[in-house]
Amino acid sequence: MKLATSKKQKENKIKSRSKKADDKQKTILEMLKSHGAKIYDDLDNGQFPKFSIPSRSVSNIVYDKKLRQYVLGNNAALRSSRNSAQLRSFTQLMWLAFFANRLTNERKSSTLRDVYYSSQAFAVEFEDQSESDNIIVDLEAVTSRAREDFHIFPEERSSIFGDLNIEYTIPGYEGKTMNLANHPDGYSIGPSLTTAELVDTSAEIVIAIEKGGLFTRFVEEQVDKKFKSIIINTGGQAPRSTRTLLKRLHDEMKLPVICLTDGDVYGEHIAMVIKSGSANAAHLRELTVPDAKWVGVWATDIEKYKLPTIPMTESDIKRCYDLKKDPRYQDGIWKKELDVFLRLKRKAELEAFSKYGLTNITDKYLPQKLELAKSL
Amino acid sequence: MSSIKEKFNQISPSEFFYSNRDLAGFSNPTRSLYTAVREFVENALDACDQKGILPDVHLTIKAVDPEKSDPKPYILTVKDNGPGIDAEHIPLAFGTVLYGSKFGLKQARGMFGLGATMAILYGQITTNKPVTVKSSSDAKTQNQFEILLDIQKNKPVIVKHTTKEISKKGLSVSICLEGDYSKAGNKIRDYVYETSLITPYASITFDDPKGQKFSHPRFVKDIPAPPTIIRPHPHGIDVERIRRMIVESQFEIPTIDDTMIEKVRKDLGLSKKILSFTSIMDKAKKKWKTLPRQVRVVIALMSFLKMDFEKLNKIRIEDLDIPNKKLFYWDFGDSQSKSVDMDPESQYYKQLTNTVQGEPLTTFLTKRFQRVGPTTALKFAAFAKLKPEKRMGTLTNQELVNLSDALQKFDDFMAPDSSCLAPLGAEPLEKGIKKFFNPDFVAVVQRPASAYSGFPFIIEMGIAYGGDIKSGGPHVYRYANRIPLLYDEGSDVVIKVVNDTDWGRYKVKGEPPFIIVSHICSTRIPYKTAGKENVADRQEIERELRLALQFLSRKLASFMSKRGQAEMAKKRANLYAKYIPMIAEFCTELSGKKKEPNYKKMLETEIASETKKAVKEENEIGNK
Lengths: 376, 624
Known about the structure:
The complex is a heterodimer. Chain A has helices spanning 2-44, 84-106, 112-118, 129-143, 191-194, 212-220, 223-226, 240-252, 265-276, 299-304, 314-324, 332-344, 360-375; strands at residues 50-54, 61-64, 69-72, 76-80, 110-111, 152-153, 159-161, 164-167, 177-179, 187-188, 197-201, 205-209, 229-233, 257-260, 293-296, 310-311, 346-347. By secondary structure, chain A is an alpha/beta fold. Chain A has a 6-stranded mixed sheet, sandwiched between helices. Chain A has a 3-stranded antiparallel sheet with strand order 9-8-11, with helices on one face. In chain A, strand 2 and strand 3 (69-72) form a beta hairpin. In chain A, helix 1 (2-44) runs antiparallel to helix 2 (84-106) and helix 11 (314-324) packs antiparallel against helix 12 (332-344). Chain A is globular and about 75 Å long. The N and C termini of chain A lie far apart (49 Å). Chain B is of the alpha+beta class. Chain B has 5 domains: 13-216, 2-Layer Sandwich (Heat Shock Protein 90), CATH 3.30.565; 234-248 and 359-409, Helicase, Ruva Protein, domain 3, CATH 1.10.8.50; 251-357, no CATH class; 426-554, Ribosomal Protein S5, domain 2; 560-623. Helix content of chain B is 41%, strand content 19%. Chain B has helices at 13-19, 29-51, 90-95, 114-127, 181-198, 239-249, 258-268, 277-287, 293-305, 309-312, 347-357, 361-368, 374-383, 397-409, 426-437, 493-500, 539-590, 600-623; strands spanning 56-63, 72-80, 131-136, 141-150, 155-165, 170-179, 203-207, 213-216, 315-321, 326-331, 336-341, 441-446, 450-452, 455-465, 475-480, 483-485, 514-522. In chain B, helix 12 (361-368) crosses helix 13 and helix 16 runs parallel beside helix 17 (539-590). The longest helix of chain B has 52 residues, at 539-590. The A-B interface holds A 32-33, 35-37, 39-41, 43-44, 46-49, 81, 84, 87-88, 90-91, 94-95, 97-98, 101, 122-124 and B 568, 571-572, 575-576, 579-580, 582-584, 586-593, 597-599, 601-602.
């Protein structure tokens, strides 16, 4: 009886979950339809169709202090099919909306590269993939929706490991569950994982780490168990699907997120992008974890832990000066550490801790930083 | 120790050119055939130009034995309707090297007639056949010569000479030479073709060894004004040239013999009369202005000797000692040398010093150079630190060198006279380009005369786009003094200027169908090599070429932008036709509609209006 109840409960749960996914799909389809209808009406009235698109030029990207991320300003450009210089990209965008509509309808996913090739079936030419990628960003900007919502995913994959139960929502796997601590190499973060329901977890924190090598070390050293954590390898700059997942872990599972990167200006910025997004995605929300914390490797750690260093290159230094102009680097550890990097003119990688033994980073450094993170 | 005694022999010009024939473009059978064609055709055109005759030139190349493989002997004949050459000059003109009529400073295709004799020499060396010359200079008799060249003596050997009656003037030259038409054919055809473009007033035909006929009839009836022969410009002169000019300006004291005395008597109108010394002097004074130079000199001598004709007959003038103002003479009567003093104040003194010491510097400059007036001459004398009255005959070697340097460096001479130039003219050039290329656009320009190193020059240039012109341009047609330059274009100044141009700036992109015709006219073209195929990059010439090209390029740019607008309108129409239906298709499915939107009429109207715009722009271009 009890069993039956729990079974029924579970079924209800699944239903409610797939309803949620259905709703989302419906909204997107409605929105695409309304865009399409506008174009249709223009043509039907004997007019060249046109629409407005938020400008993505540098001058229109501004930092929103409230949202704690970059957003697009109020400048918008008019795209008209009458303008022969815009006609081609207008058509490309129309096609993409049409294609995204089919994908969403059929719940099929595709990659950026797929989109590039699919266009050829409709005699819509793209010079190269970067042109089609660019049109995808246009669609995001017009609809204020991430491409993942249209079932278009990037190639790059990062991975995740730790005690987290998920339940798939993609066609053919609906209701199927998985524990993400089952495979020691971790699970790659693709469309099925980003769209899966996050069921439950015993973890109390998410550790985002920049490098695959360290990710493997953390799994080996059972950091997930020792520190009750979910470990995510961002593989350098975190891809959007990973940032979406980080946000969901934070918002839905109420887990704090900390970032561990190389001790250089690029590492610092990887943490910043997780926290407050990139200028490139200023037209999108829902990709940031404003409460995420960068715990290391700081410039001050280099001296504190006497880490072996390598000198900064000229481009490293230039990057420091560029970031000093960024409004997000005007206070707190962000400013402080940037200044120290500039003073030291040296940098240290995560692997530098291996000088004091392979497990030094997990045995000594990580506990100290986790403790520190609470006070940040 | 043994010494080797070297033998020094004087060699004749023929021998010199025989051993240096590469210099003149006779290096191999291919090049030689081409050069020979060039030399004879250019001689024919030059001859007609000088007499203002519309040229009819017929070029024939025939293989002696068509079955043989190249290189093999060919008979090359060039016939013209020019003034012909007098029979007495023919053997020397065609049988000696360095004999010609084209001396003097003016624009001509060739100089000295050297090239033609080189071709004859080459033909004789390779086939041992004489040159056949048929000439009529009076439209009545034709003289026909067969001539061989005695290379060592540089003298003609007449093999045969006949005459016959004829009704037309003209010259025909025929030589037999070793050549390679299979290799040279392309160049020769190009040469004839390009020559007819720059000589639109000439009719040129070419019968090639394969039996093909190429005919380029004249399409301009007016021959450009022939150039005038002028004096040299001071900037274009060197020490050797000055030395020769001084010699020309000096005169020797005439030998006073019976004939001379008879002449003086006659000129004074005293043939029979016997007059005293004073009466002779009086008579001379009255008639002075009409007296020739030699007679004046004799009178001047008599004035110091104080002798009448009777006494004059018994002496011989020995020396004029100008520094000591003494006149030495030998008296046959006493058999001894005597002298008299000359009074420098006497008017006759000047006559004698002029004769032996040459002209004063200022006179020399104003009389023998172009564009030098008395004021400039005085200024120059100060600049050169020479006295204005300095006698040219008394200049030392060092002073001559200094004078030559100063002539180069003095900036106040006026620019060289360009009346010695014969540019084709903008209008015939444009006609030629239109006829040859049937272009969509053509512009021509003739720059004002300019000069380098004292040699005047004029740049003429034309630019044409589209029509029958092949893509992959700019194709450059280079001319110098109406000669097409076909070889060695890599190092030519015209090519350099064209290559330096950023055509994108003038809206010319990709592999455009366009040509540039460049014509440099000058009394001396600064060729880089003796082969006369590429022009050196003299700063002044480069500058003029650039200005001409910029002027034309701007015109081309405005044409291109008009054409661009027409093309844009066409392109827009095409784009609408291609993309609007696609947009219609996509938005129909996207909006969930069954039927496509009603857009066809709007599209048709728009395409029609764009097409109209395109036609309008194109008509505007056409009307220009």
